[in-house]
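Write out the bound-state structure for S-adenosylmethionine.
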Amino acid sequence: MASDDAVRATNDDAANCKRYAVEKKYWSDPYIAMLTPRSSSKHAPEISRGYYARVTAMRSMLQKFIKITGGECQIVNLGAGFDTNYWLLKDIELSAKAFVEVDFPTVTAKKVFHIKKHASLLEKIAGEDGDIQLSKSEIHATDYHLVECNLRNLNELKAKLHDCHIELALPTLFIAECVLVYIDVSSVNEILKWIAESFTTALFINYEQVNMTDRFGQVMIENLKSRDCYLSGVDACASLDSQKERFTSQGWEGADGMDMAMVYNCLPQADVHRIEKIEFMDEKELLEQLLKHYCFVWGWKDPNNIGLAALDLT
Ligand SMILES: C[S@@+](CC[C@H](N)C(=O)[O-])C[C@H]1O[C@@H](n2cnc3c(N)ncnc32)[C@H](O)[C@@H]1O
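---
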């Protein structure tokens, strides 16, 4: 399917934008440059500020989840692309019992290739016991797994997580960073329903588009369509309410969320002031528009009250 190639290519875009912003010192990440080449083009400051908000918010939620569970937890990154959080968390001595990254085989194969090439990526995965199994497109180690899977196929996802020895009784955080919008709503609903029914304690953090029914949203859809990239799941991205409702309608206990303009104002303001000095930006309204069209929404299921309902970005 041609459009799946375009969807896979969105990972190159994301990794590229992240590397660009890291080189400008919006945030620090020594690993992204090992996974993606330097971008030859200049990126607008509002793009880097948007990525800053997305990356900083996701890092904050990941750290809070690991701390709440004392590390007795699992993290599953759906459509992980070239995400580097596994290595960044290790650097601050935070880790989960299992960290699973899932993506299409072409993407995971590229990630395997880069990981094999860089000792600092490989060594952290292998750990002290050196236990690591590598294939062309998958990695299995003590607390790290990289697996290929088409997320539109729930049975495949279940089988892959089983291969990673994921335990249904351990608190589990699922993250999807700019991924669900590429998958039809019914397939996403199946995943959400299965998690809510099967895992005792779960948190799901979803970052993606919101407020997509207005003019700005429609232009975004058209631009992507012209690159053969279809937002098959965009119907769930109409509003913050529709984003939250996809959790509560699939059996989750509760859901909350913010658009990225709200998130931007909740981030540690001293650091926000620092990054705002990196590049001059005269298009303040464009940044505001961009931030209003992305969101962080999270759903929880927490029958033992470990504190997931109280998690937020403040
Ligand atoms: C925009 S990229 C985001 C990558 C990463 N989450 C990040 O934020 O840097 C979207 C990712 O979702 C993956 N993806 C989209 N649909 C998928 C599907 N049906 N099955 C597996 N992966 C999928 C793509 O291959 C791509 O790596």
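---
The longest helix spans residues 45-69.
Residues 2-310 form a domain with the Rossmann fold fold (CATH 3.40.50.150).
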